[in-house]
Amino acid sequence: RLIPSSTTTCVASALMRATTLRGVGATARHARRFLSSTGASSQAVRVEFDKPFLTYNLDNAPPEVTTVTKDELLGYYTMMLKMRRMEIAADTLYKGKFVKGFCHLYDGQEAICVGMEAGCTPGVDSLVTSYRDHCQQLARGDTVEGVLTELLGKAGGCAKGKGGSMHMYKADAMFFGGNGIVGAQSPIGAGLAFAHKYKDDGGVAFCLYGDGAANQGQLFEALNMAALWKLPLIYVCENNQYGMGTSKKRSSANDDYYTRGHYVPGIKVDGMNVLAVREATKFVKAHALSEGPIMVEMDTYRYHGHSMSDPGITYRNREEVAGVRAARDPVDRCKRYLLDTEFATAAELKDIEKGIKEEVGLAVEAAKAKPFPVPEEMYTDIYTDQSSSFFIRGSDMSVSVGSYGITK
Q1: In 10 A of CB 403, how many CB atoms?
Q2: Contact, 163 vs 101, CB < 8 A?
Q3: Phi, psi (5° rounding) for residue 267?
């Protein structure tokens, strides 16, 4: 229920009610959420975060309270749930042998993607990430069908079916893809930030990597250049606690990744709370534009193994995964916000869930029905503005394509 702030007795009643509706894993601080507003979709509630932001070499931090409207919360919930259902569908497709090669799923980490998109300026701010990239592709404007089409290696995908799971890409939305090599995106992120500064377009570059890539030398080489030139670069470590099958405690001498920039400031964020991520994103973008690079650690968790070839329970047990899911699940948290504030009823959320399930199911069938790329596509897109006569030698000269001697 939305409570008029001037009505003290109503506020007290609401706080008591909210305490009883804390939901799994919430704390008593979730009770202190309420503000008044007018209008239906523009109604706003006050949310106080239950985990503080931790900072390194910063004089200030994002606010630990925010307001959010009904439309915003419904949008975040719908997108995160759609991502969750899409990744579950990808799991099923992989197990059905429809997906070839690697497949890294994002379920459990959806709040990072959705919160960052809510806090940045899509179309202006650039984004590059690792091979765990399906949800970033969706958030930047692709459809579930489009993502699954590429995942299945079918014609019509964002990389014409030639990239697959690890190489989503949407340059028209300033998303410069997933990268199959651990940490390879870190210097690309610095390059994108350089481009923003050179063009003076008001944008920043977000470069995402996992805790498994946090010890890569190229990350620190690029960070040094970014610091020297004060580039608008935001390095985001999605710390899901395990680099492949190795826990952060076993792989990193210092696993406070937000402090690893040394001469570059940092901040640690509850990556399971979409609103905390949103507010942190606004804060770090403003910092990057005025001061230069900043390191962000998103404290999160992945439910699946590192990839679909990893069962995910040899280095951790099912009880650990279930415990995190019960206590911190980002989709459930957003759902609780909607129910506790009476922005939505359980029946209304059930209808949203049903609609998303149907949408993803139809997308799966549509992706399956699409054709594979024609064989000739193997020889295209090797160089920019490549001519049809470009010579590519085959395993022997008889199966080469193009005209011998033509190199562009």
Answers
A1: 11
A2: no
A3: -150, 140
Q: Name the helix (H) or strand (E) containing 325.
A: helix 318-328
How far, in Å, are 87, 88, 104, 261, 311 from residue 307 at the CA level? 12, 13, 4, 28, 8
Torsion (CA) 212, 218, 224, 229 in degrees, nearest 10: -110
Interhelix angle 346-369/144-151, rounded to 10 degrees, is: 40
Is 131 within 8 Å of 326 (Cβ atoms)?
A: no
pLDDT digits 0-9 by tens, 294-344: 999 999 999 988 889 888 888 989 998 999 999 999 999 999 999 999 999
Query: Which residues, including other chains, have CB under 8 Å from residue 155's CB and lie 6 or more apart?
Result: 149, 161, 370, 371, 372, 373, 374, 377
Q: Does the pLDDT value for residue 28 go beyond 60?
A: no
Contact 127, 157 (CB under 8 A): no
CA angle at residue 50 from 47 to 55, to 5 degrees?
105
Q: Contact, 44 vs 69, CB < 8 A?
A: yes
The two tokens of residue 331 are: 């989709």
How is residue 364 written in tokens? 């799966």
CA-to-CA distance for 87 and 66, rounded, in angstroms? 29
pTM: 0.88
Coil/strand/helix, residue 9: helix
Is the model's pLDDT at 6 over the cut of 70? no
